[in-house]
User: Which sequence fits this backbone?
């Protein structure tokens, strides 16, 4: 099996280094050549490796763990094995899928960005950071041990920070980047503690037995012997990291604000790839999660609540990118729900399909924004159906896909998860899964509703915007800064081909991508290529300690779940069509419940009150008490002590000669008395 | 109770102490100077006493030199006092208190 | 009570009294006169102790020249300030000085009474001893011999000192 993973890792790294060093001086073509070349070659090598893997016949042979560099090889036994930490790359079905998604969608978005960012003065910087991101994400998904997973994790956080704050002269963008970084650090903390605990219990950090022969963590998990409570704590900490990175409750607040970055960034990082790192981590660490059912239930419940919560917020949002951001959070919740129901391959399947249609939706939204010269508010849009034809059709396909309408991609993946939830509930997974299944169905309806609200809001009715004349002066300057020329009504044109072609490709994938899912519903129980492909990762006959996954479902459960979800989605679309088919007219609504959801449940305000203000207060108080009073005061009081002492001593110098004579007498007397006493 | 050296030394000590007290108490610089002369004379007395009781002429010699030096010192000292206090109406050694902290 | 002890006591009381007079009198002239008296009594002490030459020299030079100089300056400077006594700026000095004075006397007396006995053995003996020379040739002879034989160098230096003092006094005493 040809494993070109190391080249997939190196290409974007080279692109990043070249662009970082000399990108400033390169021409547009040169920058594009390097960037697109790097990501394109990465994709090419991934495809070659993937096809080679498909060609490797015994499924158990689809596994390659190459060690490139042994960092620490101490020979000192810690726990069960000698302490060795090495850098290696793992290539198995799970990492192959992830690499395909990352490099494929990444490459398409690189092409799209060539058109979207063409007027931006920071062109070279953008592609430099994008290549860096691809490198970091590839490192994350192909690392063969937890340490380099952590490194990749941190690096994608850094890339996210750099790209959210790409237009660094904007205060809101910088604030959003900082918010993202701070919240992600909380997750990094969880991951680090989890890695420490893994090391403490298992003595090694690599997943599987690598080519150096060090026994991996998962091999030890399956052999048993570690108390469940420790594994549960490890899993909960890992999930904390996933919560931060994949924007689940309670650490989701950074993702809507991350929309301050350019739209290709939102598409790539905050829809298709980086936020899915959490889902990948749970899937990768599935042996650990399988032996701690408590952690799995936590994962499922968190995913479910987040899905419903985010969907409810998305219904009322007015900024088109924010609607898509909350939609991403909601869909990530679905993925976690699926993984919580032991359906890891379902979660990864939704991850893949979601990457297609969410990236598509973001790119389409970006095309709309680009055509309108920077307008992002839904109230200023409408009636763009005939002006932006390609965008219209691709957006429609994406919206249908995410609503779960058969036979598009979203249908297969979402219903895979929903039916596995119901199956898990009926076959002994616990009553809570009924509730989660219900939440999933309801959220499906909400998803369809808000998606089509967005769709009609952008494309239906008449054009409500007033063009460049209505832009505030500041906005106009910002537009020019990030390369958008202000357009008035009659200048709205379709985006150039370099932007629409990736959108079309993603639309095609959204249509046909689902067919690698399971056809059990339609009677062909033997056709489930995706799950079969991923099966060796999630089950292994040698793993004696790990409970086997819950079998998927019976036909009746499947039809029940699927029917309900599709039905609710259609109702949602119908509702949106009824309300908004003639366009989106925004009405101020004083209803307190409406205001609550419109303001995103006041979560940000809550955190400012509870967290930010106390921390700032503590900082100011520490400055006042520690710096001013203790440190400054301490050093100044040393001076004052001396001044005081010398002030006292000064009194001896009276200036009167007689006093000095008295002093002489006293001194002489002391000497005489001393000799008298001494005898 | 025979007359011996100790008695003379005690008288000398008393006169010396009177002179010291005079230096510390009086404010007229001339009287301070006179007290200093008193101290010198008390020491002269003890020298002569030692010379008598130790049967040596060195004591008297020393007194002679002390006398001479005292004379020179008085000359110069009085010249200084005159030059400082020449123009003043009231002479008080406490007026010289500028060198203080 | 032999006459020596009697004269010692009389002279002691008298000299101490006049010494106290120096520091007690308000008027500077009275103080100066009191000092002259003290010098006189001390000269008598010297006589009793057999230092005739020094006694006379004391009266001639100390009382006769130095005190005259003092009186010149006293009358020159203090003549107007007889009644005006400025208030004492450091009144606490008096108490401390008196206390310390008593302490000094006390300690010295204590030392003198309880200290090691002073070796009153003769430093010189026989024909060289002071008492012998005084008895045979007189104190002046003894003094003269010592001055021009043993102490010639200090004698010369002292004359230099006197010249310097004269010059200093002339410089300091000039007006303007």
Assistant:
């Amino acid at each position: 099996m040809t494993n070109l993973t190391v080249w997939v890792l190196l290409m974007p790294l080279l692109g990043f280094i070249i662009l970082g060093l000399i990108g400033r001086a390169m021409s547009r073509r040169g920058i594009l050549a390097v960037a697109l070349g790097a990501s394109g070659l990465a994709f090419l090598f991934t495809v070659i490796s993937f096809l080679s893997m498909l060609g490797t016949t015994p499924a158990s042979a689809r596994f390659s763990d190459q060690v490139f560099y042994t960092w620490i090889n101490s020979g000192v036994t810690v726990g069960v094995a000698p302490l060795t930490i090495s850098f290696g790359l793992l290539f198995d079905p799970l990492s192959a899928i992830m690499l395909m998604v990352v490099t494929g969608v990444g490459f398409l978005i690189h092409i799209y960005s060539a058109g979207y960012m063409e007027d931006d003065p920071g062109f070279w910087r953008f592609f430099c950071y994008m290549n860096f991101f691809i490198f970091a994400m590839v490192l994350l998904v192909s690392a063969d041990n937890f340490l380099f997973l952590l490194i990749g994790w941190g690096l994608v956080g850094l890339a996210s920070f750099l790209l959210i704050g790409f237009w660094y002269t904007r205060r809101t963008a910088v604030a959003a980047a900082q918010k993202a970084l701070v919240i992600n650090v909380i997750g990094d903390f969880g991951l680090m503690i989890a890695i420490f605990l893994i090391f403490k219990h298992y003595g090694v950090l690599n997943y599987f037995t690598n080519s150096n022969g060090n026994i991996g963590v998962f091999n030890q998990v399956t052999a048993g012997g570690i108390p469940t409570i420790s594994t549960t704590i490890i899993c909960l900490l890992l999930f904390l990291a996933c919560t931060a990175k994949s924007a689940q409750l309670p650490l989701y607040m950074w993702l809507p604000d991350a929309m301050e970055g350019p739209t290709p960034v939102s598409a790539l990082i905050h829809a298709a790839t980086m936020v899915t790192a959490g889902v990948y981590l749970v899937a990768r660490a599935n042996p650990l999660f399988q032996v701690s059912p408590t952690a799995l239930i936590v994962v499922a419940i968190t995913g479910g609540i987040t899905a419903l919560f985010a969907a409810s917020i998305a219904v009322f949002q007015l900024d088109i990118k924010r609607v898509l951001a909350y939609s991403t959070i909601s869909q990530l919740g679905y993925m976690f729900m699926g993984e919580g129901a032991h359906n890891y391959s379902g979660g990864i399947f939704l991850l893949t399909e979601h990457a297609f249609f969410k990236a598509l939706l973001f790119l389409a939204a970006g095309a709309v924004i680009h055509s309108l010269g920077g307008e992002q508010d839904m109230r200023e849009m409408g009636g763009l159906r005939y002006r932006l034809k390609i965008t219209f059709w691709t957006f429609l396909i994406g919206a249908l896909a995410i609503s779960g309408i058969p036979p598009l991609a979203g249908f297969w993946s979402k219903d895979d998860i929903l039916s596995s939830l119901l199956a898990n509930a009926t076959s002994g997974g616990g009553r809570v899964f009924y509730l989660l299944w219900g939440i999933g169905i309801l959220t499906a309806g909400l998803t369809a509703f808000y998606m089509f609200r967005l769709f009609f809001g952008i494309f239906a009715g008449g054009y409500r915007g007033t063009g460049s004349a209505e832009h505030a002066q500041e906005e106009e300057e910002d537009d020019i800064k990030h390369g958008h020329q202000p357009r008035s009504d009659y200048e709205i044109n379709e985006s150039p081909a370099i932007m629409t072609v990736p959108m079309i490709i993603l639309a095609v994938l959204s249509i046909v991508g689902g067919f690698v899912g399971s056809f059990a519903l339609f009677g062909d129980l033997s056709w489930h290529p995706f799950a079969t492909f991923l099966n060796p990762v999630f089950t292994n006959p040698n793993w004696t300690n790990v409970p086997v996954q819950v079998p998927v479902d019976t036909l009746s459960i499947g039809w029940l779940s699927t029917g309900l979800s599709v039905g609710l989605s259609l109702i949602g679309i119908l509702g949106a069509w009824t309300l908004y088919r003639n366009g989106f007219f925004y009405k101020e609504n004083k209803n307190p419940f409406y205001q609550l959801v419109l303001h995103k449940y006041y979560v940000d305000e809550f955190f400012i009150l509870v967290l930010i203000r106390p921390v700032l207060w503590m900082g100011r108080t520490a400055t006042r008490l520690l710096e001013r009073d203790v440190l400054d005061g301490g050093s100044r009081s040393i001076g004052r002590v001396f001044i005081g002492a010398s002030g006292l001593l000064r009194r001896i110098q009276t200036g009167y000669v007689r006093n000095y004579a008295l002093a002489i007498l006293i001194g002489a007397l002391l000497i005489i008395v001393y000799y008298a006493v001494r005898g | 109770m025979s007359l011996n050296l100790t008695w003379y030394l005690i008288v000398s000590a008393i006169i010396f102490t009177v002179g010291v007290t005079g230096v510390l108490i009086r404010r007229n610089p001339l009287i301070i100077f006179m007290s200093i002369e008193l101290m010198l004379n008390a020491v002269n007395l003890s020298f002569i006493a030692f010379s008598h009781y130790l049967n040596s002429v060195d004591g008297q010699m020393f007194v002679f030199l002390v006398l001479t030096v005292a004379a020179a010192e008085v000359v110069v000292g009085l010249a200084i006092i005159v030059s400082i206090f020449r123009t003043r109406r009231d002479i008080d050694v406490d007026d010289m208190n500028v060198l203080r902290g | 009570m032999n006459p020596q002890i009697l004269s010692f006591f009389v002279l002691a009381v008298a000299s101490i009294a006049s010494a106290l007079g120096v520091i007690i009198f308000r008027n500077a002239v009275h103080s100066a006169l009191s000092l002259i008296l003290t010098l006189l009594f001390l000269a008598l002490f010297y006589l009793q102790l057999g230092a005739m030459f020094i006694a006379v020299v004391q009266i001639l030079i100390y009382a006769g020249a130095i005190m005259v100089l003092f009186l010149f300056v006293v009358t020159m400077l203090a003549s107007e300030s007889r009644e005006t006594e400025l208030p004492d700026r450091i009144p606490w000095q008096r108490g401390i000085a008196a206390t310390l004075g008593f302490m000094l006397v006390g300690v010295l007396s204590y030392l003198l009474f309880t200290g090691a006995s002073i070796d009153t053995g003769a430093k010189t003996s026989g024909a060289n001893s002071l008492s012998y020379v005084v008895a045979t040739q007189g104190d002046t002879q003894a003094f003269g011999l010592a001055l021009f034989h043993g102490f010639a160098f200090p004698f010369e230096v002292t004359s230099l000192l006197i010249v310097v003092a004269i010059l200093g006094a002339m410089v300091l005493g000039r007006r303007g």
